[in-house]
Specification:
The chain is of the alpha+beta class. It is built from 12 helices and 18 strands. Strands 10, 11, 12, 13, 14, 15, 16, 17 and 18 form a 9-stranded antiparallel beta sheet that branches. A 5-stranded parallel beta sheet has the order 3-2-1-4-5, with helices on both faces. A 4-stranded antiparallel beta sheet has the order 6-9-7-8, sandwiched between helices. Strand 10 (182-190) and strand 11 (196-198) form a beta hairpin. Helix 1 packs across helix 10 (279-287) and helix 2 (51-60) packs across helix 3 (73-83). It is globular, with a radius of gyration of 20 Å. It binds adenosine monophosphate.
Length: 368
């Protein structure tokens, strides 16, 4: 059985690595010749819009998934239309996740609390949005935003001009800046048979819009229950197959949805060593109609992103119990090139190890 992956980044790579023990084969499509998944699986090299390559993917794979949220939906639709391969997760979920306005509307329709927001497509609308929502706020591009890209924070009215100049050439959304107590995410799978499996809540710390650190399990049982309820509404709405992630701000015990990602997620990397079944394996099981694996945590995990460049392996591996994941990427400032995971029997031991690693790496992220 061959699984197609549109996008061959680190998520595709970890999907393939999780699929080999299940006897699966993979075929990826990516515009980059040295893409991380292309180092461990066959790669069709070309644009995401290349109809000839999409056709090959559709012909050679039973099911096609994707590892990047900005894959053009028209490309995925063309695979189903002309070659019959199944696409999972559903293209409708990808399309919603690609448009912050569609995403907010869906959260509201499903009774999932989200930020106060307004769509903005002119300078005048931005003025009105700032009046209605207030300051501080965040102006974001409706599309193609990830890792904090395409966002400007407005603190005072005078910031409006510069924010409009920075982003005003594309459709936008303005929302309140939430003074959150912490950020969390919930990751869960729904299989083609309708079975659900939801992971323990993740506590996330971002720096400059990029995830730095995740701890799991995280937070009181009430947060887990709420987050799982909201995630289940989305999974059911889409008749979803695969892994879906929702990120929330937590403020005064309320969960406020920030965004969803219709794919395996960076905040779920701890599940490789820290859960009974990894998010990558459960994604594959879900899209192939196999029984889902247990999502229970095997201890208290911390995952630290390695950003810009990898540390010397001999240095980090000298910390007992640490797992190093090298994505095989060229170092570049701001780029996610790998991650570290530790799993400990107690939260206190986990925090101590994570603190030591953060100090060794000279990363200033706090433990959530
Ligand atoms: P996003 O790309 O929307 O997930 O934003 C990346 C990160 O920027 C979030 O995880 C937050 O840390 C921060 N951020 C984005 N939007 C807001 C907001 N409305 N209020 C507070 N922080 C935000």
């Amino acid at each position: 059985m061959t699984v197609g992956i549109v996008g061959a980044g680190q998520l595709g790579r970890m999907l393939a690595l999780a699929g080999y023990p299940l006897g699966l084969d993979f075929l990826c499509l990516d515009p980059s010749r040295d893409a991380p998944a292309g180092q461990v699986a066959p790669l069709l090299h070309g644009a995401f819009t290349d109809r000839r390559l999409l056709a090959r993917l559709g012909q050679r794979c039973e099911v096609v998934t994707f590892d990047w949220e900005n894959v053009p939906v028209t490309s995925l639709r063309s695979i189903t239309r002309s070659h019959g391969a199944r696409i999972a997760p559903p293209v409708a979920a990808l399309a919603t996740g690609q448009d912050r306005v569609a995403e907010k509307r869906l959260f509201e329709r499903l009774g999932i609390p989200t930020t106060r927001w307004r769509a903005v497509s002119s300078r005048m609308q931005l003025e009105h949005a700032v009046e209605a929502i207030g300051l501080p706020g965040v102006l974001k591009t409706r599309r193609f935003g990830y890792d904090g890209k395409g966002q400007v924070v407005l603190r005072v009215a005078a910031d409006t001009e510069a924010a409009w100049r920075a982003l005003g050439n594309v459709p936008l959304l303005y929302e309140e800046l939430v003074p959150f107590d912490c950020e969390v995410s919930i990751i869960g799978a729904r299989s083609t048979r309708g079975e659900l499996a939801i992971y323990p809540l993740c506590g996330n710390v971002h720096g400059a819009g990029v995830l730095r650190l995740t701890c799991a399990p995280f937070g009181p049982a009430r947060w887990q229950t709420l987050a799982a309820r909201y995630l289940t509404r989305l999974l059911t709405h889409f008749r979803y197959t695969g892994i879906l992630t929702v990120e929330f701000f937590v403020r005064g015990g309320r969960l406020i949805a920030n965004e969803m990602a219709p794919r395996v997620h960076n905040s779920g990397h701890w599940t490789i060593e820290g859960a009974a079944t990894s998010q990558f394996e459960n994604h594959l099981r879900a899209i192939l109609g196999l029984p889902l694996g247990a999502t229970r945590a095997l201890g208290h995990s911390a995952m630290i992103n390695l950003i810009g460049q990898l540390p010397a392996p001999s240095k980090v591996l000298s910390v007992e119990g640490v797992h190093l994941h090298d994505y095989g990427k060229e170092p570049r400032p701001g780029r996610k090139v790998g991650h570290l995971t530790v799993v400990e029997p107690t939260a206190r031991a986990r925090d101590a190890r994570a603190r030591r690693l953060l100090a060794d790496l000279a990363v200033s992220a706090r433990i959530p």
